[in-house]
Design brief:
Layout lengths: L1 H28 L4 E17 L2 E16 L23 H29 L1 E4 L3 E4 L4 H5 L6 E5 L2 E2 L3 H9 L6 E7 L2 E7 L2 E6 L5 E6 L2 E3 L3 E4 L3 H28 L10 H13 L2 H19 L7 H14 L5 H34 L2
């Protein structure tokens, strides 16, 4: 349990720091004063003031915040505020820059992590066959454990994912599959069986299968910095797309709401992935960073997306939404967040209870 808490706490702390650092640097770049930079929510545990900013570590490690000069004008009546450093006096583009920077820093952080992984060496599953299913097309054709697929038709194959992509897309089609068996190179004609299998979202999809499983043999594929950067950003784009799809399918009811996890699930998954090795943990951190960035962009009052929504209205209409309407929207946003947090905490507890009784 302590292992889970340490791993989860470190990961959440890093991702929150990256998010708030984005707001902080964008504010400084836009000439906005920063009164406080807090990791966690009050009460304050420790703090130190440098220049105009107090840097704080607080007791509730479920988020963080950057308090900007002039961000809440109604709370600062009677204070002497330098209008040149006031957030509320800045143009809409500068305020958008400050708000957007937090989520964008999380997305950029994920891309940097994945870029480094591609430079250090991505583990790639080879095409060596570990098992052949009884009465499958592969067994009937004569494939054996230990065979290594080297080509399909005219296409040279080196990675398991390359092979499965072609097989999945070819149900019922005859494929010429070349394999390496010790010193021999053999060729087999195999027609993948059409099967309905669940995808990432639990939806059934028709694919081709030949009945083989990998041997679990990996090679490390290293990329030069330019290609690694490209691959890192492409992978981040894939994570962003999947995150949006998951959100949409939760609202559609395709993904059950009971599968949504909260901080307890994050701490538990962080501990488990840390046990599986540094690479699994790195991918988990990148995925979590993307999730944090995307969720903060949702147009819910009190989240960054809610602030962006009001700023866009101001930019279109030429005047800000009234303070009263913003306060009402923020109250609704707080209630929604409280409800969501209670919901995911209950999900986490029920999941832990279920695991304990299995």
């Amino acid at each position: 349990m302590l292992y889970f808490l340490i791993a989860g706490g470190l990961i959440l702390g890093i991702l929150i720091f990256v998010h708030e650092l984005g707001h902080f640097l964008a504010a400084k770049l836009g000439g906005v004063g920063v009164e406080k930079f807090s990791l966690g929510f009050p009460p304050k545990l420790v703090g130190k003031k440098w220049g105009e900013t107090e840097y704080v570590i607080s007791a509730v490690p479920l988020g963080g915040y950057v308090k900007l000069v002039g961000q809440e004008p109604q709370e600062e009546e009677g204070k002497e505020i330098d209008p040149q450093k006031s957030y509320s006096e800045k143009s809409v583009p500068i305020r958008l820059q400050v708000i957007l920077a937090g989520p964008l820093f999380n997305l950029f952080f994920a891309a940097i992590i994945l870029t480094v992984v591609h430079m250090v060496g991505m583990p790639v599953l080879t095409t060596k066959i570990g098992t052949v299913k009884e009465n499958s097309p592969a067994m009937k054709a004569g494939l054996q454990p230990g065979d290594k697929v080297v080509g399909i038709g005219e296409i040279s194959i080196q990675e398991w994912d390359e092979m499965t992509k072609i097989i999945y897309q070819s149900p019922g089609e005859a494929l010429d599959i070349a394999i390496q068996r010790k010193a021999q190179q053999l060729s087999f004609r195999i027609s993948p069986e059409a099967k309905l299998v669940p995808n990432l979202f639990g939806e059934e999809k028709r694919v081709g299968l030949i009945g083989i499983a990998p041997a679990g043999e990996y090679i490390h594929k290293r990329y030069n910095p330019l290609v690694a950067t490209y691959e890192g950003f492409v992978k981040t784009g894939q994570y962003i797309r999947v995150t949006f799809l998951i959100i949409v399918k939760i609202f559609q009811g395709i993904i059950p709401a009971k599968t949504i996890g909260g901080p307890i699930a994050i701490f538990q998954m962080a501990g488990e992935t840390a046990k599986q090795g540094w690479l699994n943990l790195v991918f988990f951190v990148a995925l979590l960073s993307v999730n944090l960035g995307i969720l903060n962009l949702l147009p819910i009052p009190i989240l960054d997306g809610g602030h962006i929504f009001f700023l866009l209205i101001e930019g279109i209409c030429g005047k800000p939404v009234s303070i009263k309407k913003q306060e009402m929207a923020q109250r609704v946003g707080i209630l929604l967040l409280i409800f969501l947090m209670l919901f995911v905490f209950i999900n986490d507890i029920l999941r832990l209870w279920g695991n304990a009784n299995n």
